[in-house]
Amino acid sequence: MKSDSSTMKKMPMELTTKEQLEKVIQLTIEQNGELRTKRSKDKIKLKFRTKKKLYTFKLPIKEAESLIRDLQSKMNVKAF
């Protein structure tokens, strides 16, 4: 596989801490971005789309549903 720097810029960035998640939520709101959700058996993947990047974060279903309810009034949320 070609290791071109332009390819690396297009890859989603996976968040690993709640602090990172809070910063990305604020950034997404400021940039009028959107949240896309993808449900699996035991987790929900949250995909935050900003103007330049896509950030992902995985949460247990109950925790994610609570966060999604809070964010629906602040940004566009789509379920996939």
TrEMBL record:
<protein>
    <recommendedName>
        <fullName>50S ribosomal protein L38e</fullName>
    </recommendedName>
</protein>
<dbReference type="InterPro" id="IPR038464">
    <property type="entry name" value="Ribosomal_eL38_sf"/>
</dbReference>
